[in-house]
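Format notes (please read before filing issues)

Several people have asked whether sequences and structure tokens are stored in separate files. They are not. Every record keeps both together, in the order shown below: the sequence lines, then the token lines. Line labels are part of the format and must not be stripped during preprocessing.
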Amino acid sequence: MAGRGTVKAHSGFNANNDAEVLYKAMKGLGTDEDAILQLLTARSNAQRQEIKAAYKTLHGKDLVDDLKSELGGKFESLIVALMTPPIKYEVTCLRDAIKGAGTDEKVLVEVLASRSPNEVNQIKSLYKQEHNDDLEEDVTGDTGGHFQRMLVVLLQASRQQGIQEDLIQSDAQALFTAGEKKYGTDEGQFITILGNRSNAHLRKVFEEYRKLSGYEIEESIQRETSGTLQEVLLAVVKCARSVPGYFADGLYNAMKQGAGTDDQTLIRIMASRSEVDMLDIRAEFRKRFATSLHKMIQGDTSGDYRKALLLLCGGDDA
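Then the structure lines:
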């Protein structure tokens, strides 16, 4: 997946120079938001951490605190997200989702369904380090039922590698037997198979399932399950088919007509995927919808917030 992001490391990088540009942009009356967003969207996350260190060395102040006091609203949230190291950002999103008023299931689903086992393990250990709490315990304390069971399986981060030829047929059959074929649903089978097999293996299982049942696996999940369990199972299926496709859908749903913009999701995906697979997300978006990601952001946002998002998007796909 390397190099599929729109944001790349800046080649003539000098942390001290960048720290000075930001300091000047915030010094005195008024703030030069344009200078801030142009600079930060053109640096990799690792470079932003170096700028942060240089800023403190030169000025004895915390860059993120200064940005927070100078900026506001959604633009501030986006810039702060860009300034946060990737795994720490995921940890913050999960912590807020669990500890906020009510549980934000959407965030739990998005992060745990889309990240690799390696990333999930890094998230778990940093969560422990930052909050002195166990992520799994916090998740189970805040969720219930089959939804909770699926999240716990995903938190084990022990998806198998590769394709197990001898299991494709029996997995497809087990899913068919657990859902369409019986009265009621054996959710446990869905959880075990969708939570433990590799993405490549699952794609083969879905193909086999369609031959066997005449349905796409998504259709069966929609019929056989509901609520948050349905959400997490569908997210896992979408990610098995295509992680960039999953995020393209997420961005579209965050901005589609009539719902008002879900800025939290928009910020979360644009900030966290800008260095990972934004080019692929854009391509998937264009394939799936009658418009480009660029045009949709343009029509749905405004001001410095829009400018920064469009720079992260990195171009239009006509």
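For reference, the curators noted about this record: The chain has 20 helices and no strands. The two ends are 24 Å apart (CA to CA).
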